[in-house]
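haha ok so turns out i had the wrong file open the whole time. this is the CORRECT one, sorry everyone. sequence first:
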Amino acid sequence: MNAVSFSLLMTGVLLNAGAQLLLKAGTNSVGMFEFSRDNLLPVGWQLATEPHIIGGLGCYLVSVVVWIMALSRVEVSIAYPMLSIGYVVNALAAWYLFGEAVTLTRLTGIGVIIVGVYLVARP
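then structure:
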């Protein structure tokens, strides 16, 4: 895998991870909600106009374009497992940004993911 292909893959992964973090920040801002007939429009509007959620959806849109570019250069059997790096990024970022727990079990899982991605990406 060359540097351009790797860069496209990692950009796609990071955009996807960023989208998740922005969506979480947006839902934190809106608060817990339930859709019902009475609140469908107010809650839907609140979600549709929340800046973090708009940013997250934008990251998803750009990540799809970048991902398609990456898939034109890399076999899907190598590219798709790379998305697992997003789990690592999100777990650590959620711990830092949102105070979510990163237990020993989660850290062990993150280690397994890293080893797995390394093994899949090897020539």
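The chain has a mean pLDDT of 92.
again sry for the mixup
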